[in-house]
Amino acid sequence: MRSDSTTLFVRLFHRERRPGDLVFAVAFMIVAASLLAMMPWQTIWAKRTDLYTQPRFWPAVSLGGMLFFAILHSVSSFVSPRIAGRWSEVWLWIRSLEYAGWFLVYVSLVPLLGYLLSTVFAAAALMLRAGYRDLRTIGTVALVAFGIVVLFKSVLQVNLPGGALYEFLPSTLRSFMLTYF
Amino acid sequence: METLLSGVVILARWDVLVALLFGSIGGVIIGAIPGVGAAVAIAILLPATFAFDPIVGLTALLGIYGSSMYGGAIPAILINTPGTAVNALTTYDGTPMTKRGESHRALSLAYSASFFGGIFSILCLMVLSPLLALIAPHFGAKEIFLAALLGIILVIIAHRGQVFAAGMLACLGIFLHTVGLEPVKYSQRYTFDQDWLTSGFDLIVVVLGLFAISQAFVLLLEPNETPHPSRVKGTLLAGFKELQSYKRIASVSASFGVLMGMIPGVGEFTAQFMSYAYAQKTSQSPEMFGKGAPEGLIASETANNAVPAAAMIPLLALGIPGEALTAMMLSVFYVHNVVPGPQLFQNDMDFVMAIYLAMLLLNILVVVFLLFSTNWLTRIMQIPTRALGVTVLLLSFVGVYSLRNSITDCAIAAAFGVFGVILKRLALPVVPIILGMVLGGIMEVKLRIAMSRVDTPLDFIDRPIAAMLFGVICLILGCQLFGGILRKRLVDPETG
Q: Which of A70, A78, B19, B266 is found 20 to 30 A from B351 (Cα to Cα)?
């Protein structure tokens, strides 16, 4: 039978918990502890310098805080009721890396194809990947992509580079594309 | 009066007015689309505003900030899905009213309550400004450090049931700020000998990753949904007349909004829940709350719209952002070498007044726009979620890449996007990371300056404001620690 203090301890740390919570809590704690352990190599301790001006002071405070709260969070995760579906949730997190990859491919295409072409291409490709097969919907999003390019590059003149592909265009068209697309 | 006129002169420019119009209408549209929200929109547009004058950039962002909650009420009432997170409480009474066939009444009340809350808080600010201008110069390094520390503590304890998570994420934010070349000894901190880490993590890159890119990933990963709201029939003007029957609730809720907005780290949610609880307690029919009580809807919408203007107080007067959106706006100030804080109130009161006037104008613009466009906005809400995800991802690219044309920035933002997905799926708060980054930077600088003038620890609190702030911090921590234990004991009589 649990003692009063044990019951109070459990109640203090009790909270709502989602699938994957414990995995995140433990991973965060390990990262915080690892970063804290690296402190002697990743920061310096300056001689004849006050504690508060030490380059190591704020990393120590923040990583100490991270580890402290991560331990408490892990404990609270451990004593709170579990909802099934931990690893399917972790798999969903991993699946988000695919879209991060799509984003980076889009980013890499811009200096090559230019902002206009790569944006319209990325919009259409992502729509196909998201499961849309209907040409009208894909076309609408491609049109929205064109609108985004016009708004940010042509109207607001946001700082975005021209594509290497533009070098192959006739000079008048090239300067137009470099300025507006 | 002279300051007011100078403020009008600053605003009376075509580019400022276009920015205001763009921001306020854009904010309503963004707010009306569930899954986007003001934070995502501001994060995306932030770098684009750097090319403009501070007042132009700020009015556009303020427009989005102040008007998104108006738009967010529409899906909250019509399809039981809040457009922005702060409209969640509006669903409690808005949706039942729609089910009763009173959608036009619910929307009309939401618009009028939001308008009242917005105008009330701006007028409060205008009246309080001379007082703020007097108090702000008394904030030195010690006081600003303590106020920032208070902000961090409040943002942690404001996340009830998630205090430990909020604490570790706020500390992560402070840690992220420390990465890179430090400014005193010029040594590297946690750069792992990587050149790209020398300049540290850019706040905007992190913000875009955590808010915009993560939201795009979430929308793309989750099942596709297409909401189908019904058309709104009937006049939307009647709510302004009906609001007069609920003057007390509207005034008290707006006051809660102003008070909670002024305290860093607290914000809309606390203001809303306090207002809602007050409205229910004092109502003649409390049993109707959650079943379509107009008072509940008014309390929620008035309180959340009173917050944005009030949240500008700690930002403008002390340079301390109270939540993520004002933290983003701080970047606009810094980029244009406008340093918010006591000096701004002393030297550029006309600029401050212009910001207040812009907020006043945007409320009027938004209400006029909403009266004529609500049915059109219900069509925008029908965008399928995955198509929305693609659009948000394309827009996020502009935000990140236009900063420095750096692929590394995009990779960092994508990494924070994945991290943001995990946090969102676990229902863990993102805001403490951003506030940790901003307030951590302020605390590091101010503590260094303050400690150079301190001989004994007691010297740190030798001035009245510093002593008061220190007292408040101790009180809050004491209440949180012992109050929490007491509460848990009382809940279970066996342990008490």
A: B266
